[in-house]
Structures are given as C-alpha cells and as structure tokens.
Amino acid sequence: MTMAARLQGKRLLLPGLAIFVISIYVLSLLGYLSPKAPAWQPKYIREWNPDANITLEVDDFSRLPARRSPRYAISSSVMTSRFSQYAMMLAYTLQKHNDLAALDAELILLVRTEGKDAVTPQNITRLENVGWKIMVEHDLEFENVDKNQIRPYHRYNLNKLYLWSYTQYERIVFIDADTLCKGSIAELFQQPGEIAGAPDVWWDILTDTRFNSGVITFRPSIEEFHTMVKSVSDPRMHKPNDADQAFLNAYFKFRFHALPYKYNYNIIMYQHHRSTWDRLWNEAVIVHYTTKKPMPNKFCRKGCNEWEPSEWYSMQCREMLAFYGYESELPLLG
Asked: What is the mean pLDDT of the chain?
C-alpha cells in the first residue's frame, strides 16, 4: 500500500473514532450505559395500596425545594359563631374576584374558640372548606382594662392586634367579616407607610378625619405589637367602652394615610348620602354592612332603608351556598 493510501485511510479513521468516543461519553451521561440512574431523574419509592392489592410507583419529590410561604395575607376575624357565615361569604367573594396565587397571598382567619358564643368545630370545618387558614388565639388581656365595659358587640375586637405579630407576612390586609368583595384588592398590598384605611362615614359626616378599621392594610411588626398591647392600658389611647377602631385611630393618629372610599364602601351612605353611593357604586371594591347586618330569612325588601344592598347580598349568598353545597345546611342571608 502506498504512503498516500495509508494517509488517506488515517484521515477517514480518525474522525470516525472521534465521533464514536463522543457518542459513548454522551450516552454515559444520559444513563443509557450505566446501571445507576442519572442524578436528574426522579427517585421512586414503592407504595403499597391495600385496597387495590397492588404496588404503585410514586415519585419522591423530597429533594425539591420546600414551597415558599405566601408573601402577603388577607385576614379577617370571627369572634362569635354567628359571624362565621359572614366570613364564608367574604372568602367566597374575595376568591371570585382575586387570584390569590397571582397576588402571592393566602386567606387567614383569626378565631376565638373559648368562652361564650365562641366559634365551634363545625364552623371551623366550613370556614376551612371555603379557603380560610384558621388562626386560633386566646383573648388578649390588657393591664387595668376591664373588657366587660366595652360594648358587647365590639368586646373581642381588640384581639385584632394579634395580626401585628404575624411577621411571616410582609403586609396584611384586614377586612371585616361583614363585608363583600366585588373587585380586585391588589392595590392594597402596594400601599406605602405603616397603615392605611378609608375615611369613616356617619349619618351627618360624609368624610371623617378618622379611618374605619373595617378595612386596613398594614405592615406587621412584633415590636409594634408589644407596644400596642401596652398602649391599650394608656387612658389617652383607649377609653373604657371603646374597642379597636378608636384605639387604632389614636395610636396611629399622625401616621396613617387614607384609602379611597371604594375599599370600604360603607352601607350608611346608601341611606344618608345616596347620591355619593350611586355615583361610586360601580367602582366599589369592598362593601361594608356596618349599620345593617344581613340576617337569615329577614330580607330587607322595598321600603326598607337598605333594601337594594340587602338584595344584592342575598344574591351573592345564594351563589355561595350553591357553589359549596350548603343550601340545605345554612340559611340564606340578606
């Protein structure tokens, strides 16, 4: 064989060998030439299913990163059993108009399970079913404060202060249970400052200089929590028969900023400031039933001062009961 022929053969052989070696290397990386599974493939565990009498192959995702907790919380409170259905309504309408995953938020509900009229296990089961994460807390105690002097329907509202200790969240939006949501609340998580709330409304005052604590957005702080608990004992901050709203307004008097009306659309406007109610209804996000609570089988019909908002509530209630299959268990509210 001539030298030229040998050289030509080598030229053909070397590329082929290179391709073969590279192929072997790639296949070994992919696990085809190794009895050991490659690192990127999921492990499997064998799980026995006694009902089906078979063995199932189940992915083991234990090596995956733990799921991150939500950044924000949408909270409410139920201190008595009677308010549990209101909270169910709130959860339903919040999720109807908001994508919690997109908001990076979860629903948390502060409840009281001890004492007179406390939330029952059956209440909790239903509340969890509609999406609430239940946070059970004991009644807060304050030095030199007799809670029995606080108006009965507001007596447990100061337990709301617990929410400032939930520092696992960057920001918390608190919404009273006697409300309904009819739009996006995303903007509430982007508010600046320590706390924000919408102006309160009265029969003779359309825009109060104080905020209504039924809808607030705030930054949790354990230091602030401890300071607030101590401040309740200060007579300059808390009067004997006052609850959370008067205290929060005194405590944050020079630090809060106002939210638009639409985030706390007070039903008192329907009767006493009707032109404003009608003008702003389409942009309202949270409707607050302050002066007239929805009641079972006592619908406020035409001629009643708040008949239209009550009828609207009953429509949402009927929808919620059907969605969760509670039509035969719970009353229609309106």
From this structure: 84
- Measured between its terminal Cα atoms, the distance across the chain in Å is 104
Q: Where does residue 321 rank: exposed (0-12), middle (13-18), buried (19+ CB within 10 A)?
A: buried
Rounded to 5 degrees, φ, ψ at 312 are: -65, -40
At residue 77, the 3 state secondary structure works out as strand
Q: For residues 98 and 92, what is the distance between their CA atoms, to the nearest angstrom? A: 10
Helix (H, G, I), strand (E, B) or coil at 101: helix
pTM of the model: 0.80
Report the distance separating Cα 179 and Cα 97, nearest Å.
Answer: 14
Alpha carbons 179 and 287: distance in angstroms, whole number: 5
* Amino acid identity, position 86: Y
DSSP character at residue 169: S
Cα–Cα separations (whole angstroms), residue 15 to 1, 3, 10, 127, 318: 21, 19, 9, 70, 76
Percentage of the chain modeled with pLDDT above 90: 68
> Which of these, 193, 170, 161, lies nearest to 73 by C-alpha position?
170
- CA dist., res. 88 & res. 125, Å (int): 11
Chain CA centroid to CA 67, Å: 17
Residue indicated by tokens 């300059």? 236
Distance CA 116, CA 132 (A): 22
pLDDT digits (tens, 9 = 90+) for 89-120: 999 999 999 999 999 999 999 999 998 899 99
Pure H helices in the chain:
3-30, 84-97, 100-103, 121-129, 222-231, 244-251, 268-272, 274-280, 307-324
Rounded-to-integer distance, Cα 186 and Cα 103, Å: 7
DSSP letters spanning 191-251: --SSEEEEEP--SS-SS-SSEEEEEEEE---HHHHHHHHHHTT-TTT--TT--HHHHHHHH
Strand 72-78's sheet: what is its strand order? 133-136, 105-111, 72-78, 171-175, 211-218, 195-199, 257-258
